[in-house]
Design goal:
- This protein is α+β, with helices and mostly antiparallel strands.
- The chain is built from 17 helices and 10 strands.
- It binds nicotinamide-adenine-dinucleotide.
- Residues 146, 148-149, 152, 154, 180-188, 190, 213, 215, 277, 280, 320, 322-324 line the site of nicotinamide-adenine-dinucleotide.
């Protein structure tokens, strides 16, 4: 009989009973079940409160990037990632930037946008005026929802309304501007949007459907800049190569996608380590890169009059020090302690610097020897493990494959067989 993925009451079961069902469904071995049961520093009860249908946890390596100096302060950067080379590259780039005085960063106030979609309105421009005229009342209703946020100086500060053309006719889109202080703010903003929606519907006579935060956080931006002395990066031709790579990404969306992916390698790893919503930042970053219609690069590299490399980047940065999993995940709390940031703004600026560092390391390798050589030694270790190498064998198999420039599982298995014969 075919197996069914419909499991009645699955969500109500304790994790252990869910795991027993999954074991039978997938034919998991006792060893595999034990691995899932071993949740380490994220206790199963806590994991079970964080998301639904929990059967275990998924561990990832967490490392720390060094050498970062941002606005004169030193930071160690916790990063969780499955991708080899990311942490080493960030540390390497931060060291080159350090030689040029470190990163300099800034940010706007932590203002998020909440959207309220009003449809089926007779006259969109009249509805827009009705909303704008009721601004004080709408903001008050929004702020009544979150006295805690207000007590920290945050809350709904302003609103705007736009009429947009869609294939189903005109719609009025109300934007609520909410200062989220040290929270990412999605829950706070969504609650406010839902609270003011009936009033907006009553004012305009329209029907409200969506009431949710926008991840295109154009009012919550972080900016990082740096100068890399030409001697620190390997001379004039490397500087030129990076500038050519930068204008390539600016002009070509195929390249910009990969350029920006490299930036997010660093940012997403810090977000993961700190329990922040990396999808929110990824979505915001890519939407921001396409804000002027054509998708382009988030960073820009130029040469100054000294012949040194100058880099800068600005992107939306909706991160929090509280809320979401930041305070509940025990490792995220430790990561935050290592990072030592005092506000969401400072955190966002550090992330912008990490993204710029990651970008610098990638462009330096790409415009020079290519990234494969650096990638290969770590990649080779993964391949060695896949082939069954353990302990000291891992390094031995990896080294030989790299020296032969033949990093493949079949070769790793052959080398292992040879080693086992000895
Ligand atoms: P939250 O609601 O857990 O915490 C925010 C609240 O904490 C504030 O509303 C405030 O009442 C309180 N607070 C205490 N001290 C504060 C301080 N110093 N500064 C600001 N607020 C303070 O979390 P959140 O940040 O509103 O929402 C984040 C979560 O929402 C994330 O888990 C995210 O994944 C999720 N989410 C995201 C989206 C999206 O990005 N589209 C949509 C829905 C949910």
């Amino acid at each position: 009989m075919a197996k069914s993925s419909v499991i009645s009451g699955f969500y109500k079961l304790p994790p252990k009973e869910r795991l027993a069902i999954i074991r039978d469904f997938a034919g998991l071995t006792e060893d595999e079940v034990r691995l899932l049961e071993n949740t380490g520093s994220l206790p199963i009860d806590l994991a079970d409160h964080m998301v639904e249908n929990v059967i275990g946890v998924f561990p990832e390596p967490m490392g720390v990037a060094g050498n970062f100096q941002i606005n004169g302060k030193d930071y160690l950067i916790p990063m969780a990632t499955e991708e080899p080379s990311v942490i080493a590259a960030a540390s390497y780039a931060a060291k080159m930037v350090r030689d040029g005085g470190g990163f300099h960063t800034s940010s706007t106030a932590p203002v998020m946008i909440g959207q309220i979609q009003v449809v089926k309105i007779k006259d969109a421009e009249t509805a827009k005026k009705q909303v704008l005229d009721a601004k004080v009342d709408i903001l008050k209703k929004a702020n009544d929802q979150d006295p805690v946020l207000n007590s920290f100086g945050g809350g709904a500060k302003d609103l705007d309304a736009r009429v947009i053309e869609t294939s189903l006719g005109e719609m009025l889109i109300v934007h609520l501007y909410v200062d989220c202080r040290d929270a990412m703010g999605a829950n706070a903003v969504n609650t406010m949007c839902e609270a003011v929606a009936p009033f907006i519907s009553q004012l305009t006579g329209g029907q409200v459907y969506l009431r949710i935060i926008s991840n295109l956080a154009v009012k919550r931006l972080a900016k990082a800049q740096c100068i890399v002395p030409k001697e620190a990066i390997g001379g004039q031709s490397v500087v030129e190569g990076i500038v050519y790579a930068s204008v390539f990404a600016a002009a070509d969306p195929y390249r910009a996608a990969t350029h920006n992916k490299g930036i997010m390698n660093g940012i997403a790893a810090v977000l993961l380590a700190t329990g922040n919503d990396h999808r929110a930042i990824e979505a915001g970053a890519h939407a921001y890169a396409a804000l002027n219609k054509a998708y382009t690069s988030l960073s820009n590299w130029t040469i100054n009059s000294n012949g040194d490399l100058v880099g800068e980047m600005e992107l939306p940065m909706a991160v929090g020090l509280i809320g979401g999993a930041v305070k509940t995940h025990p490792i995220a709390r430790i990561a935050m302690k290592i990072l030592g940031v005092k506000s969401a703004n400072e955190f966002g600026e550090v992330l912008a610097a990490v993204g710029l560092a990651q970008n610098l390391a990638a462009l330096r390798a790409l415009s020079g020897e290519g990234i494969q050589r650096g990638h290969m030694s770590l990649h080779a270790r993964n391949i060695a493990i896949t082939a069954g190498a353990k302990g000291e064998q891992i390094e031995a198999v990896a080294e030989l494959m790299v020296s032969e420039r033949l990093v493949r599982v079949d070769r790793a298995k052959e080398i292992l067989e040879e080693l086992n014969k000895k």
